């Protein structure tokens, strides 16, 4: 249960994460490698077995977010309910070292063909791949659908990983969480307390609508803008609908320095040589050329030993190679212009209050406060639009509240 208020002002090793933490092998902040065989032994016995092998295991984890309360809409507040997401996480153990993972998400109640059903949600396949586990230093994730290894919340985006009702503000545009792409990757441990994941993916694209660039010269929405950041720039994963050929490359290093007990962190970089879709043009009819995007992120999480204090911090920078080739700078709308880069940072403090003496099975109350600043409209504008930034890309968020949850039992 979470209660939070957000005030916005313009201006390493490997392990299997189970249940709400996702059943997926992924490079993160621990220092052990678990194979599929380890899943069975850690549970004592397989949850249930399917397949032609006697030791085959199919397990299904799940998590969800159901929200009650007020939401800002058309300049006013309205009360209501949102079945925001229900997520299923099937994992199938093919052999001891070959494991299939998937994440299937039902958003906002699902979808419907009939208008009278009043469903306007979505069903998304956010992960689907096979892990081939070789050793603790090198493992391969087959071509499939996977989250981009960038930051922390984009990988571990279950609601147990953050204290606010909604995901942190940096993960709502600057990092287009949940950011998943067609991809393949390798991952493992470099040395104790330092892990890596390197991914080749379909990258980002500067178009914010389905169907690609219109062939009749009509206006279309950009994927990278000074109002939405990168939120609309994710590449589609279905039916070969990607609008450009240039791949993306992502590298994430995660670390748990032993000389600072309680500290976890990661640094990530993403690069794609081109985000401009095929046939892109400005409102003046001229073609838009290639444009690269580079992204940098560093985040840390520090739980002070033997106390209830926790501190988090993150900084994100998005570097635009050639701003004059962005659709947002050539669409006739000067309010969504983009400069040479977008950036933001957040600082968060929380305190964990153990309620084990007051409630059965142990509960925890966590009051928290998070400050976030974003600047989506820095200098270096170029293009056919008027250079009249309104400042609405400069945003501050003060988010505070209480998170109440049962304490996880150790296995």
Supply database-style keywords.
single chain, mainly beta, 16-stranded antiparallel beta sheet, two-stranded antiparallel sheet, 1 helix, globular
Structure in words:
- About 11% of the residues have low confidence.
- The protein is mostly beta strands and 411 residues long.
- A hairpin with a 5-residue loop joins strand 7 and strand 8.
- It is 2% helix and 47% strand.
- The protein has one domain.
- It is globular, with a radius of gyration of 22 Å.
- It has one helix and 18 strands.
- The protein has a 16-stranded antiparallel β-sheet that branches.
Give me the number of helical elements.
Answer: 1
Overall mean pLDDT stands at 83
**Strand element count:** 18
Please trace the helix and strand order, writing H or E for each element.
Answer: EEEHEEEEEEEEEEEEEEE
Q: How many domains?
A: 1
What would a concise description of this structure say?
By secondary structure, the chain is an all-beta fold. The chain has one helix at 36-43, and strands at residues 2-10, 13-17, 24-28, 57-73, 76-95, 98-111, 120-133, 139-147, 180-191, 194-201, 248-255, 263-272, 293-303, 309-320, 341-351, 353-354, 363-375, 394-406.
Give the topology, please:
Elements: E1 2-10, E2 13-17, E3 24-28, H1 36-43, E4 57-73, E5 76-95, E6 98-111, E7 120-133, E8 139-147, E9 180-191, E10 194-201, E11 248-255, E12 263-272, E13 293-303, E14 309-320, E15 341-351, E16 353-354, E17 363-375, E18 394-406
Antiparallel strand pairs: 1-18, 2-3, 4-5, 5-6, 6-7, 7-8, 8-9, 9-10, 10-11, 11-12, 12-13, 13-14, 14-15, 15-17, 16-17, 17-18
């Amino acid at each position: 249960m979470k209660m939070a208020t957000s005030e916005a002002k313009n201006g390493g090793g490997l392990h299997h994460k189970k249940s709400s933490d996702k059943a997926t092998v992924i490079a993160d902040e621990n220092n052990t490698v678990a194979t599929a065989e380890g899943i069975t032994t850690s549970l004592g016995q397989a949850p249930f077995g399917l397949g032609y092998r006697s030791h085959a295991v199919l397990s299904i984890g799940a998590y969800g977010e159901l929200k009650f309360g007020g939401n800002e809409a058309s300049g006013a507040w309205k009360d209501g309910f949102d079945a925001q997401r229900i997520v299923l996480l099937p994992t199938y153990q093919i052999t001891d070292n070959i494991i299939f993972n998937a994440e299937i998400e039902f958003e906002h109640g699902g979808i419907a063909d009939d208008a009278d059903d009043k469903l306007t949600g979505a069903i998304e396949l956010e992960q689907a791949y096979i892990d081939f586990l070789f050793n603790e230093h090198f493992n391969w994730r087959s071509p499939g659908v996977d989250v981009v290894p960038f930051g922390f919340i984009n990988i571990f985006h279950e609601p147990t990983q953050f204290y606010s009702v909604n995901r942190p503000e940096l993960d709502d545009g600057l990092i287009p969480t949940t950011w998943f792409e067609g991809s393949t990757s390798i991952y493992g441990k470099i040395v104790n307390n330092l892990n890596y994941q390197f991914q080749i993916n379909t990258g980002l694209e500067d178009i914010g609508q389905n169907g690609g660039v219109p062939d009749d010269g009509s206006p279309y929405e950009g994927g990278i803008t000074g109002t939405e950041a990168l939120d609309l720039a994710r590449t589609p994963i279905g039916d070969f609908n990607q609008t450009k050929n240039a791949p993306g490359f992502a590298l994430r290093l995660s670390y748990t320095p032993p000389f600072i007990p309680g500290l976890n962190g990661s640094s990530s970089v993403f690069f794609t040589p081109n985000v401009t879709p095929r046939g892109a043009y400005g409102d003046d009819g001229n073609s838009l050329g290639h444009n690269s995007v580079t992204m940098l992120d560093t985040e840390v999480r520090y739980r002070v030993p033997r106390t209830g204090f926790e501190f988090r911090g993150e900084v994100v920078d998005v570097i635009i190679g050639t701003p004059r080739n962005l659709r947002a700078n050539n669409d006739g709308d000067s309010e969504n212009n983009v400069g040479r880069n977008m950036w933001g940072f957040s600082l968060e403090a929380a305190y964990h209050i153990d309620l084990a003496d007051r409630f059965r099975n142990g509960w925890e109350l966590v009051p928290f406060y998070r400050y976030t600043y974003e600047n989506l409209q820095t200098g270096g504008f170029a293009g056919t639009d008027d250079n009249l930034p309104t400042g609405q890309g400069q945003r501050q968020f003060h988010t505070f509240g209480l998170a109440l949850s049962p304490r996880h039992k150790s296995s």
